[in-house]
UniProtKB/TrEMBL annotation:
It comes from the Bacteria. InterPro entries: DNA-bd_dom_put_sf, MerR-type_HTH_dom, MerR_fam. This is MerR family transcriptional regulator. Residues 1-75 form the HTH merR-type domain. The keyword DNA-binding applies. The keyword DNA-binding applies. Keywords: DNA-binding. The lineage of its organism: Bacteria, Bacillati, Actinomycetota, Actinomycetes, Streptosporangiales.
């Protein structure tokens, strides 16, 4: 089944479920659909049952995802994981290594730091810094440089503020598991905001092009 077909099967029982929610659960490793050669997700009835189980546990018992994941493995079984599919290696790059990996020069990196688009921690750069540097390096081909991207940074900070609003009530409860629950909520809210941001940019670009 496609992700749209899975959504149609679940929405009667779970009206709030969305494609972004299903993608979020996949990103957290709770379901592992296969991919077609063209990159489309391929779901089975087992995946639907797993999703139904996850959504029920969240709705009825307010369980954190890590607990649901353990229970699901015991009670339902899960598709065989592809080795390394969910593994990420921590990135800790020196300044010279970042310049080489991102394909930018020292002047550009200094400009990125001056405008607050990225920063080193203990003289090392992480994966997010690398992605920022690569993106800015690619955008330079279109005449966009760090000084032009302050609006993007400001928008990201405002969106981070919205995520903070969603998790603040959870953290104030100081209940057992509150930090884990807040982390899950922050991840899902961030994913939804990114989807919204991308859609609004596409709408804006169509307007610019007169479409």
């Amino acid at each position: 089944m496609s992700i749209g077909e899975v959504l149609a099967l679940l929405q009667g029982e779970f009206p709030d479920v969305t494609i972004s929610k299903i993608r979020f659960l996949e990103g957290e490793g709770l379901i592992e659909p296969e991919r077609s050669p063209s990159g489309f997700r391929k779901f089975t009835h087992l995946h639907v049952e797993q999703l139904r189980y996850i959504l029920t546990e969240q709705r009825d018992h307010y369980l954190p995802l890590r607990v649901i994941k353990d229970r699901m493995a015991e009670e339902l079984g899960r598709p065989r994981a592809v080795p390394g599919a969910q593994e990420t290696q921590e990135v800790r790059l020196s300044r010279a290594e970042l310049l080489e990996a991102a394909g930018i020069d020292d002047e550009t990196l200094t400009e990125l730091e001056d405008y607050g688009l990225l920063a080193a921690h203990a003289r090392r750069y992480d994966q997010d810094a690398l992605e920022v540097a690569r993106s800015v390096g690619a955008l330079a081909r279109f005449g966009l440089h760090a000084r032009h991207l302050r609006a993007v940074k400001a928008a990201a900070e405002r969106e981070a503020g919205l995520v903070e609003q969603t998790v603040a009530p959870i953290l104030k409860r100081r209940a057992p598991g509150a930090i884990g629950e807040a982390d899950e909520v922050a991840r899902e809210a961030s994913t939804l905001l990114l989807d919204l941001h991308a859609a609004l940019v596409r709408i804006g670009v169509r307007t610019v092009l007169g479409r």
